[in-house]
Amino acid sequence: MNRSGTLKESPSQTAGPYVHIGCTPNLAGLAMYGGDLGAVMKTGPVQGQEITLKGTVYDGDAAALKDAMVEIWQADAAGLFNSANETRGKADPNFTGWGRSAADMQTGEFVFDTIKPGCVPFPDGRLQAPHISVWIVARGINVGLQTRLYFDDEADANATDPLLTHIADEYRVPTLLAKSEGGGVYRFDIHLQGPQETIFLDI
Amino acid sequence: MASDLPEGGYLPRDRAWQPDALTPPYKTSVARSPQAPLISFPTSLGEETSPVFPDSIMGPLDNDLILNFAQPGESAIGPRIIVHGRVLDETGRPVPNALVECWQANAGGRYRHKNEGYIAPLDPNFGGCGRTITAEDGSYEFRTVMPGPYPWPNGPNTWRPAHIHFSLFGHGFAQRLITQMYFEGDPLIPLCAIVGALKSQAAVDALTAPLDMDRTVPMDARAYRFDMVLRGRRQTYFENRSEGL
Fold first, then answer.
1. What CATH class does B51-244 carry?
2. Is the pTM here over 0.80, yes or no?
3. A113 is a domain residue
4. Which of A27, B28, B118, B139 could cysteine-pair with A140, CB 3.0–4.6 Å?
């Protein structure tokens, strides 16, 4: 590819099976840093609807990945990011927007205690449906996988979302929808292969 | 190089340069590689922003793996090294305030992890993790011990070259990257199936840190230099901001 950039991005390599040592050391049994980064997304009373996201990453043999690590990044309830490069306003100071969850080493389940994000505008002015950016790494994954989580109870917003309406294979869109299980709990299982293979993004 | 043009969306990841998802000699990739094409989509605010990692969360020993897990007065066993470099983006600009996390095996090739079964012993004074935040010029530095190579069950007699894992978080979620650093001259590099996922010698070289005698501390620690590059942003006055895709 002809690129005007002067440097090549560093090539990615797998996170391997011991990603916990570096990214969630306390979970790995190393008492370090006074806690794991991304373990807590709510640092005080937060605005908006508090929710719990749960899911499991499955491989092509329908086996749960017990060594995956998932990160999420999202806006607050008003659609603002708690970020140095958020220029539209000040986000909820008690909500970091960023979570990191290592899959449970016995079950493979990841969990995030977060909030339902507000709508964020697309560059062309259209509103995007509430969504969360998701990044998945694990042993056997050479380049971290990017996708998005939308909500199955936001049908109206989803129907006009710039990404969801961009997907030609409509039957695959449900792979991006977290399913409400009631009580503020949503399930978002990620399938790396197979008939339910999650849509992954080159974004 | 850096320019004064406004910043647009992130440049797409160069998939012709990055490893493919499916690299059969690395056996675990076979069942863990997506098979449908990735859906291409431009970045927007959710990919162009990132959380704040203030310097204040960093402890004074967070980037010193020789001491950060050691008992008082003790230190990790192994060849003492400094690993340093800069984090830049594809346009050549430094990336300050990036979160750099690293993890590695000890000098004997043993990780401190419950799923690790290698016969080599743990070092009671070595945890194997470090972290730091890049400076204004994108620079970072760790002090550690040289990790040992170790066997892994990809094949009947397969060994990982000595390596340090790096996780990088720059200014946009689109830049999120995990990679591994190898050491110049390690004969295991060309034998490794994970290294083999890289598509060119240039890509292998990009992850191979050379000895850096200029930063070596005499009578104390050798130094290796490892620069890392994150995705850059498009620079143009004609960014696609009003008329849609």
1. mainly beta
2. yes
3. yes
4. B28
